[in-house]
Amino acid sequence: MSLSNMCRQRVPLCEKYADITIDCEGEDFEEVVGKGIAGLQKRERNFLRCAAAGSAPHRDGFILCLVYNACEDTMSGRVDPFHNARFLVEIDGITRAGFHEVQFGSAVTEVIEYREGNDPPVMRQLNGLTQFRPIRLLWGMTGATELYGWYKACSTAGPAGLRKNMAIVLLDDNGNPEARWNVVNAWPCRYIPPDLTARECRVAIEMLEIVHEGFTRDL
Fold first, then answer.
1. Model confidence at 203, in pLDDT bands (50, 70, 90)?
2. Which of 2.170.130.30, 3.90.1150.10, 3.40.630.30, 2.30.110.20 is the CATH number of 87-218?
3. What is the pTM of this model?
4. Which of 66, 72, 141, 201 is the most exposed, fewest CB within 10 Å of its CB?
């Protein structure tokens, strides 16, 4: 059976990929194989090398089909969503970047309904003010007091001159930025010290609630 016929008949893959088939007729096979192998994980690359060195029937067609399916963006364009477990927070003038949790407040634009007498019997939907909900930062308590000091200064003298710009950065598994939200004119309005109990042993968590005047997403 020729390679073209194998691809046209949607040849099943090995047991690992038995439920996946492809139709690669008319494609540039060498280009697909080159791109696919470059994007495979190490174990898949090793598997392909072993298969290529063997004498299994229709080896080339098998390898081509395996590459086509193992490389997620070669054929289907599939893009997996980001993970949320790696991130950092940048605050002007404050060195702390590691936080246990970031609770990102929503952005909500008010909707104003309006209608004139000669309009169709449907209300117009107009945009009003946009409100940005507070951001909450939670971290394991240490001897560092910069964040609490920022809150104390704002609560004592007001936020004038103490507003800061921030950035919340989502990272990939290698620590590279995947998404970034830039926050402007932020200042802390609430501080919660850790809960304490003698009944169990857990990490002491501090929390700072921050109000701001908007954010934009980069990346």
1. very high
2. 2.30.110.20
3. 0.64
4. 201
